[in-house]
Protein 1
Amino acid sequence: MTGDPQAGQPDEFDRWRRQTLLVGQVNQQLDRLLVSEFQVSLPELMVLIELRYGHERGTRVQELSAAVGLDQSSMSRLVTRLDNKGLTTRVSCEHDRRGVYCTLTPLGARRGEEAEARCRQELAGLLDLASLDDRAAALVARFRYTGAAIAP
């Protein structure tokens, strides 16, 4: 049985579609802000965050792919862009010459921290704005409530 969005009874697909649209819109706005202010894209910021909280020796590109949700080819290009910007560097694995670790440079750590703080601030405002839209209000409320319930 499918839901009738006009009748106020959205089904799983309708809720998923609304959530996907909201996330896409928020991501686009965050991406524009990050590129404008920090010269990093949202996926690049996600990698900088993963590296900051990862192992001190670095993180393998394959592990970054899984953590950020990009295929290996896209992740490889993204890491190359970060390397070219001086935000990361690649280090060969000592016991497996095929393995490559990605590590933050001091500039990458600083830029990542600043961009993450700004992104957190902007996200709060974007969610406040989205909560005023009847189609997104319940999603935002559920997102915020669920996040508060699982926070340490």
Protein 2
Amino acid sequence: MTNKTLSVSAINNGTVIDHIPSGYALRIIHLFRFLHDKNKITVGLNLPSKRLGLKDLIKIENRMLTDLEASEIAIFAPEATINIVNDFEVIKKIETKLPTNIANIFHCLNTKCITHKEQTESVFYVKEQGKQVKLICHYCEKSFERDQIKRSARY
């Protein structure tokens, strides 16, 4: 008889983001400002995974991610599974897929880009090259790897 225990407790209502590549959970929490909602967040880091070897996990109570937010998270966790939970039951599974573009979340790192001089929304095109995800600024056309980008203070 095998005795299994859960590493992370279940949530009553909210969102579970599973199969995040190891090391990306805290970055996702920071970039998408999940702490600003003041909801209870449970984070699992370096958990065992058959698919990834090691994975991270985020559980956000009383916060339901939209399909758009799920696609934005796919920039950092393309193989993530996102489950919406109600009364301890999964009521919706959101399949993540990379968006074609992303607006008003990140700022361009090119200090000569017009987005630093004028009040204009940031827009990046998302390109996947093998296992690498790149974001290309709509305005200056500079390309950045996903690990380089930062959250914009404006949004």
